[in-house]
Design brief:
This protein is of the alpha/beta class and 319 residues long. The protein contains 13 helices and 9 strands. The chain has 3 domains: 36 residues, no CATH class; 239 residues, HUPs (Rossmann fold, 3-Layer(aba) Sandwich); 30 residues, no CATH class. The termini are far apart.
């Protein structure tokens, strides 16, 4: 288990013990220096998610939360922990959304995993495939464009999730982005010189046009998410997306992983710095004007929304 066998006790030849109860530890936090047994790790993890949801005002009475469920570790953990947090709260409804992008040798297994988890938790599941919305699978869209496959997938996937969330009457759309994802995204924006994406602020009424997105795992590391998933038996051995190797994120993940190991707390500092910068910048700036896309009606701050711009470039604009 992640982090086990570290610390003074391990150096003396004995197993490390939980800092809370003294039982054998299964996880060691290099940031706080705390050892956790399985029971206290699970409790700490779920309390952390509750705190994030409460402090950030993510979910309230009457909300229908659509959970983006890919079947991978992060989204599976997200659905599991939200189900545990809200299982006794009749004022909050959960529904899972799965997007089948059409990636041969990969998506079949993850979609099946998503279906099994939703069935076990008795959470309603809606699935939609790229051809249903865009006419082609991702595999059919990217030949010759493999270097930007993740950008194409991300743009179309966001539209598909928004479409399903609206159809389900969702008031919030939850995604499984964890601390690693958030810090990587911030760093990628800097490396690309994309300050607009980092700092942009929508006009006051713009959120009424979107299903607001929430990220309950954003302050928890990937190691913590994986550990929770293993302890709850929701992390399964699944294939990796074949397009991952072409993405800038793969190199950024490796770089930040090394930095986090050498200097624990680096990922959190990157995210906190980005949040402070965005808050200070947007506080003194005018909001970006948002108008309906003339093709699909979705909100956009440009002439066309990102999805229609992409479909135009691919020669497959949706009718």
């Amino acid at each position: 288990m992640a982090g086990a066998g570290t610390g003074k006790d391990a150096a003396e030849g004995s197993l490390p013990l939980c800092s809370v109860c003294g039982k054998p530890a299964v996880y060691f936090s290099r940031v706080s220096g705390t050892h956790f047994c399985d029971t206290h790790f699970l409790s700490w993890f779920e309390d952390s998610v509750r705190t994030t949801i409460r402090d950030c005002g993510m979910v309230g009475p009457g909300d229908t939360v659509a959970v983006a469920l890919s079947g991978g570790k992060d989204s599976s953990v997200l659905l599991e922990v939200l189900h545990r947090i809200f299982s006794d709260d009749t004022s909050v409804k959960l529904v899972a959304l799965t997007i089948d992008e059409g990636i041969a040798g990969y998506r079949e297994d993850t979609v099946a995993a998503a279906e099994r988890l939703a069935a076990r938790l008795r959470v309603p599941l809606r699935t939609i495939a790229f051809p249903d919305l865009f006419g082609k699978t991702l595999d059919e869209l990217v030949p010759g464009r493999e270097q930007v496959a993740c950008s194409i997938c991300g743009t179309l996937r966001r539209r598909a999730l928004t479409t399903l969330a609206r159809e389900e009457g969702a008031t919030k759309l939850a995604t499984g982005h964890c601390l690693d994802d958030e810090s990587q995204s911030a760093m990628m924006n800097y490396l690309r010189g994309d300050l607009t994406r980092t700092l942009a602020r929508l006009s006051p009424g713009a959120q009424d046009s979107f299903v607001p997105r929430i990220k309950p795992l954003r302050y928890l590391s990937e190691r913590e998410v994986v550990t929770y998933g293993m302890l709850r038996n929701v992390v399964l051995p699944l294939p990796e997306c074949p397009y991952t190797r072409f993405a800038l994120r793969a190199d950024v993940r490796k770089m930040l992983g090394t930095m986090e190991y050498r200097y624990p707390g680096t990922l959190m500092k990157i995210l906190q710095g980005q949040e402070k910068l965005s808050g200070k910048f947007s506080a003194g700036q005018d909001s970006a004007a948002v108008t309906p896309c003339p093709v699909c009606g979705e909100p956009t701050s440009g002439e066309l929304c990102a999805t229609c711009t992409l479909l135009d470039s691919l020669g497959i604009r949706k009718p």
